[in-house]
User: Which sequence fits this backbone?
């Protein structure tokens, strides 16, 4: 398959990515046929700074809702790709959404989609990708493998909605982090989770400042320039700790208690800023 946005697909750090995507897109197209609107890459591969520890986020848009029988066929494709001996094939993550649901603002954050978690070969139902920021990435940064271009199938995203979503996410994640850091080992208090939350809050603050969704790296660089300088070392620590998460070891190791406490302090600091950040007026 000749990808529509072929030049946007990075050749590094995984040259084998293109082969995995080619098999993935061809087999999905064969199953969905006329029901396929398009296959897109979103997430870090679309926003930029795709690296060794990035997963491969996708979104498949269909004309009509999929049946369980069709999902079994798509699940088989997911398993086939996962069996390939290369990193990108084992880290495909994404959802299937109908074009009506994609453009139904009332469904955002409410309707569960068919979703494959990072590295999973079994689909589940979740609102994980049915969010404003995912739609923004799709329309403004999405990479089209096949099908119609995102801007032709998706209405412009009301950025005030994305800002509201970001603020709500920051508040809820802060509460969850407060509850989880002293509990038994989980994602929240793991080495992976600790670095993830520092970088994610940098990224969300960046979204509130710019009205855009950029990469974790872009959020990290921005935060070091705009947040209180006392957080610079923690942000550097989080970025360095992120390296190697692809091996799956750090998610099973508890982060040090003082570092978790400092991370919570940073999260609380970030949440305290959400109503003080000026967003460029032309972005909402």
Assistant:
């Amino acid at each position: 398959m000749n990808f529509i946005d072929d030049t946007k697909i990075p050749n590094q750090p995984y040259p084998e990515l293109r082969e995995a995507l080619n098999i993935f897109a061809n087999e999905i197209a064969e199953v969905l046929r006329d029901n396929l609107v398009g296959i897109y890459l979103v997430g870090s591969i679309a926003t930029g700074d795709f690296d060794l520890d990035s997963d491969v986020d996708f979104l498949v848009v269909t004309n009509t809702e999929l049946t369980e029988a069709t999902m079994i066929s798509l699940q088989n494709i997911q398993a086939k790709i996962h069996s390939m001996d290369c990193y990108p094939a084992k880290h495909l993550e994404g959802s299937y959404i109908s074009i009506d649901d994609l453009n139904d603002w009332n469904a955002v954050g409410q309707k569960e989609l068919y979703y494959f978690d990072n590295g999973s070969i079994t689909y589940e139902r979740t609102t994980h990708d049915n969010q404003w920021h995912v739609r923004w990435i799709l329309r403004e940064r999405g990479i089209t493998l096949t099908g119609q271009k995102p801007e032709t199938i998706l209405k412009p995203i009301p950025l005030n909605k994305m800002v509201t979503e970001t603020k709500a996410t920051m508040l809820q994640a802060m509460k969850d982090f407060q509850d989880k850091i002293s509990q038994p080992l989980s994602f929240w208090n793991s080495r992976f989770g600790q670095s993830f939350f520092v970088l994610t809050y940098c990224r969300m603050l960046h979204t509130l400042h710019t009205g855009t969704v950029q990469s974790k790296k872009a959020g990290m660089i921005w935060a070091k320039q705009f947040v209180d300088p006392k957080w610079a070392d923690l942000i550097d620590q989080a970025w360095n700790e992120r390296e190697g998460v692809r091996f799956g070891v750090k998610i099973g190791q508890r982060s040090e208690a003082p570092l978790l406490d400092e991370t919570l302090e940073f999260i609380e600091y970030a949440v305290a800023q959400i109503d003080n950040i000026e967003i460029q007026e032309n972005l909402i």
About this structure: The chain has a mean pLDDT of 96. The longest helix spans residues 159-180. The chain is about 45% helix and 10% strand.
